[in-house]
Predict the 3D structure of the following.
Amino acid sequence: MGDHKNVPLEELVTEFPGFLRMAPHMPTNESIPRNGEIGTRIKLRRLQLGLSQESLGLALGVPFEQVQKYETGTDRIGANRLHKIAKILKVPILFFFGGSLDDTDAGEDTTAVLDFLDTAYSLRLVQAFRRIEDRHVRQSIVELVELVADKSGAGGS
């Protein structure tokens, strides 16, 4: 492997098999799960802020169907668009790559929240809870759910 200043591309490809790579905008097997993780975090934060897909889409200048594609990982999000999403959702950009809202490691808690969002009733529960205006009623509901969860976790059904 000597001086390659004037070596034809074909020879470089032969000498260095990994020289040509798929274009960065093309999905790879490795990037597909990452797109889904980023999309799930977008959905998590959007729901935390009480935003609809339509309102996020309006802020981004895209239809809500495009937001759906981002959230499901169907479409890859470019760096500029992801930066804009981070600003709209008021999170550091690293939040989408496993960081937390306060730039500390949220690890297990974040995973549990993301798993919860994938359940059938999670969105209905969150939307109904947000409609409850009385702080004391909200507190009572949280305490009830924690009590049920503790009993359920202790082997009860």
